[in-house]
Design brief:
single chain, alpha+beta, 13 strands, 37% helix
Length: 323
């Protein structure tokens, strides 16, 4: 009888142990399958997708999410004293080296720097002697200093000077409307992607629209494309001024460059821009120690794009080895 009791006790103990082990396994299974709901793993790692045109992209540049699920804010670049630009980049077009940058991936309005894309698309789809007519539709765009008149006719070769030197919005619209404006805008967007501007978008050919956007990195890609493949466009931007005599096709016009570095012997080319949404923008490519160095300014205060560029020029000459 005693042995039977002992046997029963052993069986009961074994059952209790087995139940405990089973419960422990179940608990461990629950822990491994029900992770911390605030641990997002790798969901937020990697690069952010580009925002839709017009979207405020500031959150893409100023925040990041860690793997622990805690939101951390990236410190904003301190920037260089005296530079008012919200974003800038200084880089070597030949080597690809970036010397200085602030918010260089931030997507921002670019204003009339859009016209560089307008120019190289136009020269790709039209011939130099294609006729560009100033229509009522194109003349009704935001006024500029070009004084182009309705029913005037220009060759593409002529009107590109007005587009790139005096930054004529009327010239930009007239070029885009020569065949099919919607198709021309499609080409601007697709060409921009192809030349290294993946975060850009163009809603109009002039840059008036705040939806004409790109990052400083995009504009560095554009600068590399122009230097390496379209120096003819940059050549036009180096002219200080031009004039058109009165003909049967158009009246007389005098145009001057808006770029403050146009008289600098180091100036390879560039373009200025200014709108309320964009502030002041500017691309300046200079020959420094036989190297093409791009200075890109976005979101500068009015009247500051030249001084911003000169400050960056002074700083990069102190620290950079351009070889």
């Amino acid at each position: 009888m005693v042995s039977n009791h002992r046997y029963l006790i052993v069986v009961i103990i074994l059952c209790i142990v087995l139940v405990g082990i089973s419960a422990g396994i179940k608990i461990q299974d629950n822990i491994s399958t029900n992770q911390n709901p605030f641990d997002f793993g790798d969901i937020f790692t990697g690069s952010h997708p580009a925002p839709l045109p017009g979207m405020d992209s500031s959150f893409l540049d100023n925040s990041n999410f860690s793997n622990s699920g805690n939101q951390t804010v990236k410190p904003k670049p301190a920037g260089i004293p005296g530079v008012t630009a919200t974003a800038y980049l200084v880089g070597n077009i030949k080597t690809g080296k970036i010397y200085m940058a602030k918010n260089s991936n931030r997507i921002m309005p670019v204003a009339s720097m859009s016209k560089l894309v307008t120019a190289f698309v136009a020269t790709d789809v039209l011939t130099a002697d294609s006729t560009i007519t100033i229509t009522e539709e194109s003349a009704s765009t935001s006024p500029d200093g070009s004084n182009l008149q309705v029913d005037e006719h220009y060759t593409l070769n002529e009107i590109l000077q007005t587009l790139l030197l005096s930054s004529s919005n009327v010239a930009a619209e007239s070029i885009a409307r020569t065949s099919n404006r919607d198709y021309f805008m499609e080409l601007m967007r697709s060409y921009a992607w192809e030349v290294g501007m993946p975060n850009s978008f163009f809603a109009d050919p002039s840059g008036i629209s705040p939806q004409n956007v790109a990052s400083a990195q995009d504009l560095f890609g554009l600068a590399k494309y122009l230097v390496n493949f379209r120096p003819d466009i940059l050549q036009r931007t180096r002219i200080m001024g031009a004039s058109f005599a009165t003909t049967t096709s158009h009246g007389s016009h005098v145009i001057t460059s808006t770029h403050p570095f146009v008289g600098d012997p180091r100036f390879i080319g560039g373009k200025t821009g200014r709108t309320e949404a964009a502030g002041e923008t500017m691309l300046t490519i200079l020959n420094i120690d036989d190297q093409p160095i791009a200075f890109i300014i976005l979101g500068a205060r009015y009247g500051s794009r030249e001084s911003d560029t000169r400050i960056l020029l002074g700083e990069v000459q102190k620290v950079a080895d351009f070889r």
